Amino acid sequence: MKISRHWKILVASSFAAFTLTGLVGAPAQASPETDALYNSAQRHFTDGNEGAGLADLRALLGNDPGDAEALSLQAIWSHYANDLPALADAMARLQATDPAMAAGTGHVLDAIGAAVATLPNPLPALIGPQTGIVVLGYGLLPDGGLRPELVNRLTAAWIQAVASPFSPIVVTGGNPQNGITEADAMRDWLVGRGIPASRVHVENRAGSTVQNALLASRLLRDVGATSAVVVTSPNHIRRAVADFIVAGTQVVGATTSLEQLVSQLPPPSRNAQRGIYLDATRTFQLDTSR
Questions:
Q1: Closest Cα partner for 132 from 196, 226, 213?
Q2: How confident is the model over 174-188, as pLDDT tens digits?
Q3: What's the CA gap between 185 and 142, in Å, rounded?
Q4: What is the pLDDT of residue 19?
Q5: Which residues are registered as beta bridge partners of 131?
Q6: Closest to 58 measured CA to CA, from 73, 79, 43
Q7: Residue 66: φ, ψ to 5°
Q8: pLDDT tens across 42-63, in order?
């Protein structure tokens, strides 16, 4: 899917640590050959073949050394491959080509590091009214009912909400079933258990974790929250944390349900880390194809 320049700049403007309103800079000198190589690289990364993807990027950059998106991808996936010389070279060339994109790419790598180090935690964080509570949705039953996994997430969120009675709550998730979106169902569950409706802010368009992060981060800013506790399942929390940080949200807590908690305490597997990297590039709004 082609992501508009407007969206890239929107994401860039949310990074508190950087002045990134010119994130993407001048467009690369696109050609059918470089576009084909870029698209091939992205397919390889999606399929789990980072070696082939990086080879495509090297060929692309041989034709167009100033392609900022390709340099950003090269830096991120060289980091995943633990190829530190290639990472340093890509970042140096990106800094010379597009300093704002280089700063944003560094932010992505920092977010990935923070996410990998995150531990699932069933205990509520101690937070004040400027920190929002964000609950990520999960697929509903065909009749619009809640699956047990989503009830587990909501229970963890309810505990966090009771522990932090002045914090706004954002429920995020689209994917309607029987005319009901995940976010609407989550709001109804929370309100039905005593949470004031005025505390619960609904984002009911997101269809993925990437969209959860982008759209909920915007809503958090709209309601005056400067940071967030992210609430989801233990096997989902690290990817969610990375996406929210990349989207510009300061994550100060990662609250999860108890189910599968112990199995998710060790560091994520190589394959799970690849999913974090892949999601982070998409939250950063690097084109998936062009």
A1: 226
A2: 999 999 999 999 999
A3: 13
A4: 33
A5: 227
A6: 73
A7: -100, 15
A8: 999 999 999 999 999 999 999 9
Which residue type does 100 have?
Answer: A
Distances 114 to 67, 118, 171, 269 between C-alpha atoms, Å: 28, 6, 23, 15
> For the stretch 3-28, what's the b/e string if a residue is b when 16 or more beta carbons lie within 10 angstroms of its beta carbon?
beeeebbbbbebbeebebeebbeeeb
Predicted pLDDT at 239: 97
Q: Tell me: pLDDT of 1 over 60.
A: no
Q: Would you call 266 exposed, middle or buried from its count of C-beta atoms within 10 A (0-12, 13-18, 19+)? A: exposed
pLDDT at 17 over 60: no
Tokens 């560091």 identify what position? 267
pLDDT tens, residue by residue, 66-110: 999 999 999 999 999 999 999 999 999 999 999 999 999 999 999
Q: How many CB atoms lie within 10 A of CB 82?
A: 8
Please give the pLDDT value at position 227: 98
Structure-token pair, residue 240: 């969610």
Q: Cα–chain-centroid distance for residue 8? A: 14
User: What's the half-sphere exposure (Cβ side, CA atoms, 13 Å) at 284?
Assistant: 30
Which tokens belong to 41? Answer: 């690289």
Q: How far apart are CA 52 and CA 61, in angstroms?
A: 14
